[in-house]
Design goal:
Elements (H helix, E strand, L loop, with lengths): L4 E5 L3 H12 L3 E6 L10 E4 L1 H9 L3 H6 L1 E4 L1 E5 L5 E6 L10 E5 H14 L3 E4 L3 E6 L6 E5 L4 E4 L1 E4 L7 H5 L7 E13 L7 E4 L4 E6 L4 E9 L11 H7 L6 H8 L8 E9 L5 E2 L2 E3 L5 E2 L7 H18 L3 H30 L8 H13 L3
Parallel strand pairs: 1-2, 1-12, 2-8, 5-14, 12-19
Antiparallel strand pairs: 3-7, 4-7, 5-6, 9-10, 10-11, 13-16, 13-17, 14-15, 15-16, 17-20, 18-19
Helix pairs in contact: 1-4, 1-8, 2-8, 8-9, 9-10
Bound molecules: flavin-adenine dinucleotide.
The site of flavin-adenine dinucleotide (FAD) has 31 residues, from helix 1, strand 2, strand 3 and helix 8.
Amino acid sequence: MNTLNILVVGGGIGGLTSAIALRRAGFDVTIVEKDPDWSVYGVGIIQQANVIRAMADLGIIDDYLGAGFGFDQVEIYVPSGQRVAIIPSPRLTPGYPANVGIGRRALHQVLGDRAIAAGAAIRLGVTVGALDDDGEGEGVDVTFSDGTRGRYDIAIGADGLYSQMRDHVAPEAAPPAFVGQGVWRYNFPRPADVTALCAFDGPIGVGLVPLSDTLMYMYVTTPEPENRRYPRTGLAAEMRSKLTGQPPRIAELAEQIIDDDAVVYKPLEWIMLEGPWHRGRVVLIGDAVHATTPHLGQGAGMAIEDSIVLAEELVRHPNPEAAFAAFRARRIDRCRYIVEQSKAISFGQTGQGPRVDQGKVTHEMFQITAQPI
Ligand SMILES: Cc1cc2nc3c(=O)[nH]c(=O)nc-3n(C[C@H](O)[C@H](O)[C@H](O)COP(=O)(O)OP(=O)(O)OC[C@H]3O[C@@H](n4cnc5c(N)ncnc54)[C@H](O)[C@@H]3O)c2cc1C
C-alpha cells in the first residue's frame, strides 16, 4: 500500500470521520476548514444503528455514546397528544443501543478530538483558493486562501451542501433544490420521561429528542412557501407562532422559546450527483455529493459511512481513481435511497406527492441500512 498524502476539505462530520478512518489506514491527512472558529450550531442530531456500528468500526463508540443519549424505540403521538405507538428499533452492535441523540457540538468535540489524537493536521480559517489536478493523474497542487501551497496525492471534498469542491468535480451539477419545508430547532432541559424520540404527527411535524441526561431538543418541520432566510431578531416569536394548536405538552414547551439566538432554522434542500463522484484525484463525500432532507435522520450517517468505505477502497486499490470508482459503486444505491425516500416523505407532507407511510418507510430504511456497507 502506498502512503498517500491526503487533503480533506471541510472539518465537519464527514471530514472528521474521514480523517479518523484514513489515519487508521496509515495515510497522512491534512484538513482545511474555512470557519476560523470551527463552530457548530447548538442543537442536536439523531443517529441510528448503522451509525452506532460505524462508530464502533472507527473505534470511537464509547466516547461517542458517552457524549449522547442512547435509546431503543420511537414513540408516536397523534395531534391530540395521545401516544399511539411505540416502535422498537433494531440494534446492530451488541451491548449498544439502537439510536443516539447527540448534541452537534458534543459530536463535533468527540470527532475533532479523535481526529487530532489520530494525527490529522487541522488548519482553521483556510480554504482552497485554486486547485490544479496536474493532468497526469498523479497529484493535486493546491493554493490555499492564505497564499500557502501544497501538493497532495488526493483531495477529498467533505465541504457540505454548498460544496466548493463540487464545482471542480461536477461544474455542470444543478445547485441544491429546496423542498418547500424548513426545520426549526430549540434546546430544553430534558424532562425525565423523554427517554426516546417522541414524534408528534400532524401537518406540522414536531419531535422531542433526548441529547443527554439534562438536555433535549425540539424540532418542528413546517411548510415554507419560499426558501427565505429569517432575520435573527424575532426568530423565537416566529418559531412559537409555528406551534399554535399543538397538544398541551408541546404548547407548554413553546412558551419557553424566548431566545432568538438559540433558535436554529434551516430550509430543507437536497442534491444527488448521478454522474461521477470524482474527477482526477479529487473525490466528494457526504452532503457535497448526496445531501438529503432529515426525514429519515440519515444524512450524517451516510457521510460517516462514506468515510469508512472510501478509506477501505484507498487501501485496497493502488490507483486512487480505481478506489474512487469502487467507493461510488458501493455507496450510490444506499445514498440515493435515503435521498429519494426522505424527499418522498417531505413531498407527501406538503402535498407535492402522495402521502407516504413514514412508519413503513422507516422500518424499510432500518432493514436497508442494517446491510453491511
Ligand atoms: C434541519 C436538519 C436536520 C438534520 N438532522 C439530521 C439527523 O437527525 N441525523 C442525521 O444523520 N443527519 C441530519 N442532518 C443532515 C446532516 O447534518 C448532514 O448530512 C451532515 O452534516 C453532512 O456532513 P458533511 O460532513 O458532509 O457536511 P457538514 O457537516 O456540513 O460539514 C461541512 C464542513 O465543511 C466546511 N466547509 C464548507 N465549505 C468549505 C470550504 N470551501 N473550505 C473548507 N471548509 C469548508 C464547513 O464549515 C463544515 O465544517 C440534518 C440536516 C438538516 C438541515
